[in-house]
Design brief:
about 200 residues, about 15% strand, 6 strands
Length: about 200
């Protein structure tokens, strides 16, 4: 049986992170993706990318309406391999931390937490005030992994996609999904450009 991974795109800027996640998961044969697209994520798809909403939805195996609290992924008895909220708005973060499950993103995340399944929150906001930081600490205390999309440069990124994929790869590492999205520390970079960062 395929491992089910829930992918939620919420209203924070950076919807390309979620789109790249879906694109890469399509290539993983033993993963079945369950997608939640919030209404605000749909707006950001139009504002920030050249993708159409239907194209993004078609990247997933199963698509759930964000208001459908009767969806399979809203139940702890429906086994999944975890969930990634990418990007995760502060509003979604707050709903998850406070178990305010008035939408499927918050409910599915709450299920992951209560069932001790892996939950990755790619919180996309800056700058952060103390309230944001407190919410992230509380989410971590509940068992979520907080993974802000902070670019790294040791893998010699050449494109925006390289930077995005580094964050996606870090999430995949935590979810134990094999990938080759970036060159790991200690490995030889594929793009030999010595001196470019001098």
């Amino acid at each position: 049986m395929k491992r089910r991974i829930i992918v939620a795109l919420t209203g924070a800027s950076g919807v390309i992170y979620g789109i790249r996640t879906l694109l890469h998961l399509r290539a993983v044969e033993d993963v079945e993706t369950h997608l939640i697209l919030s209404d605000d994520a749909r707006v950001n798809i139009r504002l920030e990318t050249g993708y159409k909403e239907d194209e993004v939805a078609a990247m997933a195996d199963v698509v759930h309406r964000p208001d459908n609290l009767a969806a399979t992924i809203a139940s702890g008895s429906f086994k999944t391999g975890g969930m990634i909220v990418i990007p995760c708005s502060v509003k979604s973060l707050s709903g998850i931390v406070n178990s305010y499950a008035d939408n499927l993103v918050a409910r599915a995340a709450d299920v992951c937490l209560k069932e001790k399944r892996k939950l990755v929150l790619v919180v996309r906001e800056t700058p952060l005030h103390k309230g944001h930081l407190k919410l992230m600490v509380e989410a971590a205390d509940l068992g979520a992994l907080i993974l802000p999309p902070m670019p790294a440069f040791y893998h010699r990124p050449e494109t925006i996609e390289d930077l995005v994929d580094h964050t996606v790869g870090k999430a995949f590492d935590y979810l134990e999904i094999d990938h080759r999205l970036f060159c790991r520390w200690g490995d030889k970079p594929t793009n030999e450009r010595i001196g470019d960062f001098a």
